[in-house]
Amino acid sequence: MFFNQIFDYYKNASISKKLKLFGITTALFGIVLFTMITFIYQYIQAKSLMEERVDTFSQFLAENLAPAILFDDMKVVSTVLASLKYEKNIMQVYILDSKHKILQRYDENNSTLEDKILHNLIEKSFLWKEGKLYNHVSIFAEKEKIASLIMVSSLNVYHHRLMKEVTIAILALLLASWISLRLTEFLRDEILVPIQELSENTYKILKTRDLSNHVLIKNDDEIGQLGKHFNRMLSDLKYMKKELEEEKNSAEYKALHDDLTKLPNRMGLMHHLIDLIEQSSANNTQFAVLFMDLDHFKTVNDSMGHDVGDEVLKIFSQRIKSSIRQNDMLSRMGGDEFILVLENINSEESIVFISNKILRTMDAPMNVEGELIYLSVSIGISFYPKDGITPEKLIKNADAAMYDTKSNGRNGYHFFTEDLTEAAYARLTLEVELREAVKNKEFVIYYQPQVDAGNGKLIGMEALVRWDHPTKGVIEPDEFLALANELGLLIRIDRVVIEEGIKQLKEWSDKGLNPGHLAFNLTMKHLIDKDFLSTIKSLLAIYGCDEQNIEFEISESAVMEYPEYAIGILKELNNFGISLSVDDFGTGYSSLSYLKRLPINTLKIDRSFIQGLPEDKDDAAITKAIIALANSLGLNIISEGVETIGQSDFLVEQGCPIVQGYLYGKPMKKNDMEQFMIANR
């Protein structure tokens, strides 16, 4: 019980206390060892002391026996020897004559003196044998040796006492050794074993990467605290490892997904297509790739801001996801381009059904921040393996089919054909050349006169852009303006045209010519450009041109795309003094309530209503209605596309004498236009 308490105390003690106890134990062991050495030394000293005492007593006894021996009085000698029985250490005494024969003796055990011992004693004074001390002393009378005395003494008393002390010392030594051994084992268990366990766990963790190998905490000492800290470190590392894995998974997710829509991105799509191609090749199955691009999305982004554009993209992705199967994959390539991968498609009819379903999802407007936005989508379709056996080829061919859809009016779908590859290459070539044309300023202005058909006088002209290609010659705007709009180059081209037109208008005025007003075509992109109005003001100031000689034409469809926004910008232009006209009137979906609010000066009747005049009754009725509407609203009216005298006479008769068309002049270069003005002064 006592030892258990000691061990419990030692078990829970700090290492410093354990070492202190160990030091005490070691000290005790040293004391015991010192005691043993002391006892041995005392034993040796006791023997030496006994030799001196025995020799002294023997000399004393010899001196007292000398007279009796000299006179041969053996009775006295016998009496003296008999008195030695009171000396416990003296066992035997022999009196020998000169010939070493025993004259008298004292022997409590009646033992005999061996000749060998006697012979050895003659040569030396002391002899130790079998725990007995033999001492030889000569007896003299008048300096003459008359006899010898041999005394045999025993060390039994000292020996027994010393043996007891040595025994006790040995027992103490054994006890101290046992205690030290147990303490050493205990220290090993309490210090070395936990440290070894820490070492083994560390090695195991390094080998297995398993952070759940916690050590067992036995005590609350420094080793126990070290173990706790080690376990806590493992827990922290495990948590950090989990965080790192989550961050890694998050990074991998971000690397493969679009931040805005959370759809797979281009890289995620490529991984999916690689796996799907391998799977489809093994199973001999087909799949389809649908390349989708939102029509006129850039206009929304530019006019209403990127936040609205982002919401439009999210709404579009949600609508498409709700229209497809669970195993189909929708991804975002970037911007307003999306790719849909349809697995296990065995016929074009299935693709047609899904494509029409996607188109129908865009019929409903998108409500973003209270604004209703109508958008359509153009789709291009490629098949695996018919149209490609690599992700790049399938995407490229679907992209080519999508541009074919855009070229044919948008809001639809087209399947890839080999002819589209050539068309896509031609488009790519045109795109590169168009960018170079903007950089090299290869665009020129052609001017088409606007005249009063009643008297033939020039009242103005329209500036029309042409591309003066270095190898292909003059390229009409229908062949490149749509692509320039998609590439974001249209504003840059039109600014070059407007600046050159204003500059030329000023030059003609300085020459004394009367060009009238100069009309430029605008798109919605110009109206949403925050720098447009300031740029126009700056150009007019630089070239000293009167703003009343400038007119901007904007199409009916562009105005009605964002009527409220358009009205605000047009009012600013009109307040500045610039005339405004609605181009291609009657071809769009005009709202008369918006029309009367527009700060416009002129309506321009589209050429499609002029071509059938005067024979086509429908064209005649529509033209009359437009003229009447313009007159009732107090607007000027002009007709474009006039090519015959009959058309001109009909328009003059109906009250629209201002006309534009081949009958009065084709679009022409500035030198030709200058000669036209001189001829028609």
The CATH architecture designation of the largest domain is Alpha-Beta Barrel
Query: How far is the first residue's CA from the last residue's CA?
Result: 135 Å
What percent of the residues sit in helical stretches (DSSP H or I)? 55-70%
Question: What is the oligomer described by this structure?
Answer: single chain
Using the coordinates above, name the CATH class of the largest domain.
Alpha Beta
Helix-strand makeup class: alpha/beta
CATH homologous superfamily grouping of the largest domain? EAL domain
Strand neighbour order, sheet with most strands = 13-14-16-17-18-19-20-21
| Low-confidence residue ranges | none
The major beta sheet can be summarized as: 8 strands, mixed, barrel
How many helical stretches?
23
